[in-house]
Design goal:
65 residues; alpha+beta; Ribosomal Protein L30, Chain: A; 3-stranded antiparallel beta sheet; 2 helices; 3 strands; globular
C-alpha cells in the first residue's frame, strides 16, 4: 500500500527576545527549536511535543500559524 502524505499545519516561529538572564532549560529549548540568532525564523510541523516546547519559552518567541 502506498504511504499517505500527511499535510499537517506548520508553525512559523521567530525568536524576538534574548534569552540572557533566563534559566538554562529555556535557553536549551530555544536552541532545540533550531533558533540560533535573534529574529531568525524557522518552520516546524504542529505537534503536541512542539506545543509543549513553545509554551515553555512563549515569552521569547513570535508564533504564526
Amino acid at each position: 500500500m502506498p504511504k499517505k502524505e500527511i499535510t499537517g499545519k506548520t508553525l512559523r516561529i521567530t525568536w524576538v527576545k534574548s534569552d540572557i538572564g533566563f534559566p538554562y532549560d529555556q535557553k536549551a529549548t530555544v536552541k532545540a527549536l533550531g533558533l540560533r540568532r535573534l529574529h531568525q525564523t524557522v518552520e516546524h510541523k504542529d505537534t503536541p511535543a512542539l506545543r509543549g516546547m513553545l509554551n515553555k519559552v512563549i515569552h521569547l518567541l513570535k508564533i504564526e500559524e
